[in-house]
Amino acid sequence: MSTTGESQNIEQATSAITDAPDNKTRRYDRQLRLWAASGQSALESSRTLVLSSSATATSILKNLVLPGIGHFTLLDPAITTTADAGNNFFINAQESIGKPRAAEALPLLRELNDSVDGEAVLKDVKELLGTEDGRETIRSFSLIIAHNLNKDVLDELAELLWADLTNPPLIVVRSAGFLADFFIQFHEHCVSQPHTDGTPSLRITRPFPELLRWARELDFDSVDPTTHAHIPFVVILVRAVDDWRAKHDDKLPSTSAEKNEFKAQLRAMKHKPDEENFDEAEAQAWRVWSEPTVPGEITSLFTLPPLSASGPTPNQSFHALLRTLNAFVGSPGGPGCLPLSAALPDMRTDTESYVKLQNLYRDRSLHEKEHFKGILSEIFPDIAAEVNEDELDAFLKNAHQLRLLRGRRWGEWAKDKSAIAEALQIFPRDAGTHVALTALSTLLSQAPDGSAVTADALRAEVQTLVGEGVELPEEVDTAIGELARAPTAELPNTAAFLGGMVAQEAIKMITKQYVPVNGYCVVDLIDSTTGIVGTP
Amino acid sequence: MAAATVLNGNAPSADWPGRYHHVDQILDKPGPRTDPSFLAGPGVKEFLRDQCKILVIGAGGLGCEILANLALSGFKDIHVIDMDTIDISNLNRQFLFRPKDVGKPKAIVAAEFIMSRVPGVTVTPYYGKIQDKDDDYYMQFNLVICGLDSVEARRWINATLVNLVDPENPESLKPLIDGGTEGFKGQARVILPTITSCYECSLDMLNKPTAFPICTIANTPRLPEHCIEWASVLEWPRVQGDKKLDTDNPEHIQWLYQVASARAKEFKIEGVTWSLTQGVVKNIIPAIASTNAIIAASCCNEAFKIATSSSAYLNNYFMLIGTDGVYSFTFEHQKRDDCPVCGGESLDITISREWTVDRLIEMLVERQDIQVKKPSLSSGGKQIYFQAPPQLEEATRPNLEKKVLELVEDGGDITVTATTLPFNLTLRVKYT
Amino acid sequence: MIKIWSMKKNEDAAAKKKPKTSAAQIRVQKDLTELDLPSTMKTHFPDPADLLNFTLTITPDEGMYKGGAFVFSFVINANYPHEPPKVKCIPTIYHPNVDLEGNVCLNILREDWKPVLNLNSVMVGLQYLFLEPNADDPLNKEAAEELRRNREQFIYNVKSAMRGGNIKGVQYDRVLV
C-alpha cells in the first residue's frame, strides 16, 4: 500500500510540475504575443529621457513603464501648478501643488511597474545643454522625448542629437487644445521584423530539386482518391508549371488568355469536382505569374549609399546583412532570389504530406542559410563572428519585407517653403495644423503664458513660414482659430491620446519591430483624424 | 455586490482655483468648428461637472483609461460596470491595478483608485453583468462609453440603448461611444441610437473567429493549433464528460497542453507550447497599453465634445492601424435599412379592441404600403402566430381567434417577419 | 448634450421604438418561420416557447440511410447569427462525417459559417450528408475507410448499425423508423 501511495504521490508531484509560464511572462503575456522575447528584452535594456512632466509627458511614460522599459529619467525643473494638479493623473492633486512636478510624478509612475527604474532630475535641459557632461548625459539615453519644449531650446537639443550618427533618436511632441503633432528625428532606422504581413515566395516557379522531384514523380492519375484529394496545392502548382513549361518553350503563363488556360489546366487535373486542394491551387495560381524576383523595395536597399563616407555608421550589422543578401541573390551557388522562408502556410492536405513538405522547406531554408552565412563570413568576417543566430534568423525570415528608414533633422522641412506650400495644397488640414502649431511655438517662445497668441499673430507667423504671397487654404484658419482659442490648453484627452501614440512609436523605435512613422504625424481631435506630412 | 459609494474629499470645495485651467480654455469660448448651440461659460461647466451622469461599461484595458480621462475632463458622476476580477496578465496595461489586487473585482478597485487620485469625483462601481440592469437604470445616464471585448455584450447594450429611445423624450437618446483594440490596431465610434449606424449595422465588419474544420482537427492535423483544438473541442468532452472546461483554470490549460503535445508528437507536428495552447483556447487577443490609451482617449474626447457641445464630434467611425507607420481612417459608417436592431420598418397602427389576430394579419396582407406575405408575429419574445414550422404553427393557431388586445397591451409592439420583408417590421399597436 | 437633444427633436420621425426582443431572437423567428423543409425533415420544440433549443429529425427517403430517423439537437445562443448554431447528432450513428460523440463535420457549422447563412442552410447541409457521405474528410475514420475500400460492406454496416448493431466493437443506436 505504501509503495502505491508513494508512486501516486510521485505521479501527482510530476503532474503538478507544470509548463505554465512564470509570473513575469504572465504579466507581459498580451504584449509578448506581439513583440516576443526579443522585443521585450530590447525594451528592458532601453533608457528613455523625457523632457517635461506635463500630462502628456507622464501619459507617454505610463505607456512605456507598463510594458516594462528599463529606465526613465524625468527632466523637469517645473513646480506643480494648480492647473497641473487638475489635468495630470500622475500628480497627487492639491497635495502636489507647489512641489517639484517631476518628483511628484516619479513615484506615481514607478508604482505602475516594479521592474522599471526611474529618476526625477529637477533641472532645466538648458542647463545640461550648457555643459559637456550634461550633453554627454543626454546622449547616453536610448531615446529622448520632448513635449512642448521651448522652440529655441528644442532647436539646440535637436542639433546636438543630429550632430553624430550614433546619437539617440528624439521624439518631438507639440500640442494645444484639440490639435497636436509629433515627429521622430533619426538618421536611420532598420526594421528587421516589420510585421507587415508580406507573403514570402514559395518558389513554385523555381522549385528546389527535392520539391521538383516530388511533383514530377508523383503519379497524379494512379493514386487513390483520398490521396488525390489531399495533394498539397504547392505540389499541384509545381507540377502544373512544369508541364506548362514543357509545352510552352519554358515560359510562364503571361497573357490573361494564358493565365486562364493555366487555370483550366488545373481544373482538368481534378478527379472529382469537389477536390478542394485543386480549388486552392487555382486560388493560389497568382504565385505562378512571375519568377520569384527580389521586390523593388528590397533592391533599393542594396544600392543605398552609406550615411557617411567616412567614420563609424550605425546599424553596421544590418547593413552587412543587406550587402550579404545582395551577394546571396547574385551568387552562383544561390537560388538567384531571396532566401527561402521555412514558414509554410496551412493548406488542404493530410498530415503526412504537410509534414513532409514542411521538412523539405525547412531543410532547404537551412541549406540556404548556410550558404548565406558562408558569404557573410567571406565578406564581413567581423560581423559574422558577432551576429547571433536569432538576429540572423529574423533577418532571413523577413528578407522579403525588410525596412530601412532614413529620417530627417527636426526643422529641416520647415525650411523648404515650396514643399510646405505643396503640402498645404495636397493635405490642407494636416499641413495646415502643422504650420499653425509651428507658428504657435514661435509665439509661445516669446511669451510662454500665451499672451502673445492671437489669430492675427498666428496667421502672420504662418505666412512668414510658408512665404509671403502664398495663399493659405481655409484649413489653416480653422487650425489657427482653435489654437487662438486654447493656446496653452493641455486637455486630458489630447494628452492621453498622444500618450498612446508617442509611446507606440517609441516602442517601435526601441524594439526595431513594426514600422515607425517617418514625417510629422498630425492629430486633429475635433474631426478625429491623423495624417502624415513631411515624409522624406 | 455593489460597493458603497466612497466620497473623496468634499465635492464642491475640491475644485481648487485653476483646477480646470486647461479644459476651461475650451469651455470659455467657441472655436471655428463649434456648433452655434454651444453655450460657453458657466452653464456648460455646471452641466458637465454637476449634472452629467456617464456610464462606463468595462473596467479593463480600455475601461481603466476611460475612467481616468473622464475624471480629469471634469465628469464627476461616473458609474462603471464590470463582471471580471483582476488577473496578473491585466497588469501590463490596466494601470489602476497592482499585483496586490489580483483576484479582486475590477470595477471596485478601479473606482476606488480614481476617487483616491482625482478629488471630488464619484465613481459608482457595479461588479456584475450589464444584463442585470434594467431600462430604468440605463435611463439615468446621459452618455454610455463601452470598452468591452465581447461582441455579445456590445450587441446587448446597443440594442438596449436603441430600445430606450422615446420620441417624446429628448433625453432618452443616449449616445453610445464604443472602443475596441487588438494589438496595434483599434477603433472608436459614436453611435446615436436610431439616428446613426449602430453596432448591429456593422456586425459584418467583424473578423470571423478562427475555426478549423472539425475533420482536419480529427484526422489531418497540420498545425499546432489543430492539435490544441483537438484537445479542447474533441478530447475534453470525451474524456472529462460533463465537467466544464474553464479556460481560466491553469490545471485545465495544463491538461489541454499535455494532450495537445502528445498528439503533436504522434503526428510529428512542432510548435505546441503552453502559451499557444492558452492563446488558442481562450482566443487571446494581444493587447498593449499604448493602443488602449489612444482608443480610450478618442472615446472620452468624443464624450467630452458631445456632453459640452464645445466642438464637432466624430461622425462616426475612427479606425487606427499602427503597425506600419500611423494610419487612420475616419468615415461615416452607413446605417443599414435591414438592421435587425435599428433598421426595418416601423408602423403605428390603430385597431379596434375587438380585432382578432386573424383580422390583423388579413389587414397586413392587404395593405399596399407594406406588402407582406405570410407574416409571422411575436411580441416581447412571445409568439403570437408563426407560419412555420408546423409544430409552432399548430401551437400558435389558437391565437388567431384571440383578440389582439389579449396578447398585446395598448402601445405595445409586435415584431413581424416575412420572406417579403428585408428583415422585420415593427408594429406599434393602439386601440380605439 | 444640447446639440444631441435638439437633434433628437428634429428627427422624431426617424426615431422608432423597438420591441424588447433581441436581434438574435428576431433573427431566429425569421429563420424558423421561413423554413422550407421537405417532408424528410421535421423540427421539434420540447418547449414551444423556447425557440433557441430544438431538435431536427431527418428521415432520408433515398440513399443508403433510407429507413433511418436521425435526430440532431440545435442550440442557438444570444450571439446568433454572429456565431453558428451548435448542432450535435443525438444517437450514436455509423457515418463517416459524424463521430461517436455526435460531432458533425459540416463546413458551415464551423469554419465556413457566415451570418448570411441561416438555419435552413444548415438543415439542408445536414440532409446532404446522408445522401452523399464524404469519405475524404472523415470524422469516423473506420466508416470512411470502409466506404472507400468496400462500398458494399459499408452499406451493409450502415444497415446493421441502423438496426442497433455492433460494428468492430462499437455499439450503435437503433434508428429505424
UniProtKB/TrEMBL annotation, chain A:
Query: Keywords assigned by UniProt?
Result: Ubl conjugation pathway
* Involved pathway(s): Protein modification; protein neddylation
Q: Where is this region: Disordered?
A: 1-23
List the record's Gene Ontology CC terms alphabetically. cytoplasm
Mark out the compositionally biased spans (Polar residues).
1-17
Set out the biological process GO terms recorded for this chain's protein.
protein neddylation
- Give the domain of life: Eukaryota
The UniProt record lists the THIF-type NAD/FAD binding fold domain at: 28-145
Name the Gene Ontology molecular function terms of this record. NEDD8 activating enzyme activity
Please state which protein family the record places this protein in.
Answer: Belongs to the ubiquitin-activating E1 family. ULA1 subfamily.
What job does this protein perform?
Regulatory subunit of the dimeric UBA3-ULA1 E1 enzyme.
Q: What is this protein called?
A: NEDD8-activating enzyme E1 regulatory subunit
Q: Top-down, what is the taxonomic lineage of the species of origin?
A: Eukaryota, Fungi, Dikarya, Basidiomycota, Agaricomycotina
UniProtKB/TrEMBL annotation, chain B:
Task: Answer whether the UniProt record assigns the keyword ATP-binding to this protein.
Answer: yes
What biological processes does GO assign it?
protein neddylation
Single GO molecular-function term?
ATP binding
Which residues does the Swiss-Prot or TrEMBL record annotate as the active site?
A: 215 (glycyl thioester intermediate)
Which pathway does the record list?
Protein modification; protein neddylation
Which parts of the sequence belong to the E2 binding domain? 349-432
InterPro entries assigned: E2-binding, ThiF/MoeB/HesA, ThiF_NAD_FAD-bd, Ub_act_enz_dom_a_sf, Uba3_N, Ubiquitin-activating_enz, UBQ-activ_enz_E1_Cys_AS
- Which enzyme type, at the first EC level? ligase
Which Enzyme Commission number(s) are on file for it?
6.2.1.64
Q: Return the GO cellular component terms, semicolon-separated.
A: cytoplasm; nucleus
Question: What UniProt keywords apply to this chain's record, in alphabetical order?
Answer: ATP-binding, Ligase, Nucleotide-binding, Ubl conjugation pathway
Q: Which reaction does it catalyse?
A: ATP + [NEDD8 protein] + [E1 NEDD8-activating enzyme]-L-cysteine = AMP + diphosphate + [E1 NEDD8-activating enzyme]-S-[NEDD8 protein]-yl-L-cysteine
- What does this chain do? Catalytic subunit of the dimeric E1 enzyme, which activates NEDD8.
By sequence similarity, the record places it as follows: Belongs to the ubiquitin-activating E1 family. UBA3 subfamily.
What is the protein name for this chain? NEDD8-activating enzyme E1 catalytic subunit
Q: What is the lineage of its organism?
A: Eukaryota, Fungi, Dikarya, Basidiomycota, Agaricomycotina
TrEMBL record, chain C:
Q: What class of enzyme is it?
A: transferase
Task: Name the residues annotated as catalytic in the UniProt entry.
Answer: 105
Protein's name in the database: NEDD8-conjugating enzyme UBC12
What SMART domains does the annotation carry?
UBCc
Q: Has the keyword ATP-binding been applied to this entry?
A: yes
A GO term for molecular function: NEDD8 conjugating enzyme activity
The protein's annotated pathway: Protein modification; protein neddylation
Q: What is its EC number?
A: 2.3.2.34
- The UBC core domain sits at 23-167
Organism listed in the record: Ceriporiopsis subvermispora (strain B)
Q: Which InterPro entries match?
A: Ub_conjugating_enzyme, UBC, UBQ-conjugating_AS, UBQ-conjugating_enzyme/RWD
Q: Cite the CDD domains for this sequence.
A: UBCc_UBE2F_UBE2M (cd23794)
Which reaction does this enzyme catalyse, per its entry? [E1 NEDD8-activating enzyme]-S-[NEDD8 protein]-yl-L-cysteine + [E2 NEDD8-conjugating enzyme]-L-cysteine = [E1 NEDD8-activating enzyme]-L-cysteine + [E2 NEDD8-conjugating enzyme]-S-[NEDD8-protein]-yl-L-cysteine
Give the keywords, sorted.
ATP-binding, Nucleotide-binding, Transferase, Ubl conjugation pathway
Protein family: Belongs to the ubiquitin-conjugating enzyme family.
